[in-house]
Amino acid sequence: MFETIAFYFFAILTLSMALVVITTTNILYAITALASSMVFISAFFFLLDAEFLGVVQITVYVGAVIVMYAFGMMFFNSAAEVIERKQSPKILCALSFGVALLLTLILSAPSIGENLSNQVNSNAIDAQIPNIKAIGYVLFTNYLIPFEAAALMLLVAMVGGIATGIQKIHGKNHTQFIKESL
């Protein structure tokens, strides 16, 4: 009985927040409603006893919406500040190298994962192990390389965001700021 009531409660809340996202004209209200609807969607995972998926739903999707909220606050009214500049060949070379490395990792990850799983006993996961431990075991054996590639991409995005923030706050590019800071 509790699950049925909770299901309908979270369904109504999710649909109402989705309706706010569609109908509002204020971008910040829409992003806030989108974050709320993602939290309510994670409640469905918790009702289905899929705790890991519920936590991932909150951290990934709500985290992404919060980042989108921050970008909406920073850049929505600053369209006049956009200045076109020439592209540097070093940036193009580094970007090309990064894309090539990423594609190599993505295409080689299944074969590397199969080799790693052949080395590990495939019968190690049984029904007695909790759901989160089983996911962690598979994640760090079969999918270790894609997991590390995703971590590297998040690190690069974080460093790029910090560099962009420094440039916007101080009005200088990041190399000038670092030279002056040292």
From TrEMBL:
Signal peptide: none annotated. Gene3D superfamilies: NADH-ubiquinone/plastoquinone oxidoreductase chain 6, subunit NuoJ. Belongs to the complex I subunit 6 family. Pfam families: Oxidored_q3 (PF00499). Keywords: Cell membrane, Membrane, NAD, Oxidoreductase, Quinone, Transmembrane, Transmembrane helix, Ubiquinone. It is found in: Cell membrane. This is NADH-quinone oxidoreductase subunit J. It catalyses: a quinone + NADH + 5 H(+)(in) = a quinol + NAD(+) + 4 H(+)(out). PANTHER family: NADH-UBIQUINONE OXIDOREDUCTASE CHAIN 6. The keyword Electron transport does not apply. InterPro entries: NADH_UbQ/plastoQ_OxRdtase_su6, Nuo/plastoQ_OxRdtase_6_NuoJ. GO terms for molecular function: NADH dehydrogenase (ubiquinone) activity; oxidoreductase activity; quinone binding. It comes from the Bacteria. The keyword Transport does not apply. NDH-1 shuttles electrons from NADH, via FMN and iron-sulfur (Fe-S) centers, to quinones in the respiratory chain. Couples the redox reaction to proton translocation (for every two electrons transferred, four hydrogen ions are translocated across the cytoplasmic membrane), and thus conserves the redox energy in a proton gradient. Its EC number is 7.1.1.-. The chain crosses the membrane at residues 6-22, 27-48, 60-79, 91-112, 143-166. It is a multi-pass membrane protein. One of its GO terms (cellular component) is plasma membrane.
